Amino acid sequence: MWEIYDELIASIPPEITVQECIVGLHWILIQSQATGLAMTPREGRPRIKLAGEIRGMPVRELAGYAKSWDFFEASLGLAAINSVLNTPEQVANLCGRTLSNQPQVNAFTYFQERVKGKKVAVIGHFPDLETLAGLCRLTILERRPRDGDLPDPACEYILPEQDYVFITATTLANKTLPRLLQLCRSARVILVGPTTPMAPLMFSHGIDFLAGTVVVDPVKVRQVVQEGGTQEIFARGALMVKLSREEVNRGRV
User: How many domains are contained in the chain?
Assistant: First the structure.
């Protein structure tokens, strides 16, 4: 069950250190080789036991906390991983095109033509899901269900029947992702959100498409995080980026 985590941690060079750490209201930011983001947890105790020790820590050491059952520590670890893997240069090379040519739409809008008439599940209640609701047979699974959502334990029954499954990357922090991927073997799986590591190794574990974030203006994004912003990062120096299994496979030919 730990394979994804161990591979992500092992991909971090040992010599890189953390230059800055910010724990904002909505985002955790780690600055090292680049700027990495992860969503600030909504569950668990809001206490950072590592506070005062993070700056200067080897990024690989902090990345190891992605396996922690303290979700704040786990999110710090994922932001650390993303600070090395989600660099503008690396993601552009993987995609085979400049980041300016990446469509600045969310994954749900990007896939709306492909999911028409299909059975679609979304893990996590994202904003703007109405773009999908009228096009497909949509099921939303949420740990804190709103009207119309199903509680997340329903995934055991719902996911094996789906054509497409969109999974929030915060499932890496709460450790539910490995089981969700086991349930999605018949579906096309899209991992979504700024917590997403843009790493080809993810495609070896049942994920077909990565929809994450690359920070191209660290100063502006840092200010948004410090001031408690959420989606404002996308108007202030963060880009939505997308990478498919097929793109990576073509690059290996």
Answer: 2
The rounded distance, in Å, linking the Cα atoms of 50 and 47 is 9
- At 99 the pLDDT is 85
Do 201 and 191 form a contact (C-beta atoms < 8 A)? no
pLDDT mean by block of 10 residues, the chain; 253 residues: 96 98 97 98 82 97 97 98 97 86 88 95 85 89 88 95 97 97 96 97 97 97 97 95 86 48
Cα separation, 38 vs 192, whole angstroms: 12
Query: Within a 10 A sphere around the Cβ of 91, how many other Cβ atoms?
Result: 23
Host domain of residue 45:
3-87
CATH code for the domain in which residue 248 is found? 3.40.50.11590
Q: Could you give the residue ranges of the DSSP H alpha helices within 68-173?
A: 71-85, 88-95, 107-110, 130-133, 155-158
**Are the C-beta atoms of 179 and 160 separated by less than 8 Å?**
no
Give the N- to C-terminal CA distance of the chain in Å, as an integer.
30
Identify the domain boundary among 51, 68, 87: 87
pLDDT of residue 30: 99
Q: How far apart are CA 247 and CA 71, in angstroms?
A: 32
Q: What is the pTM of this model?
A: 0.93
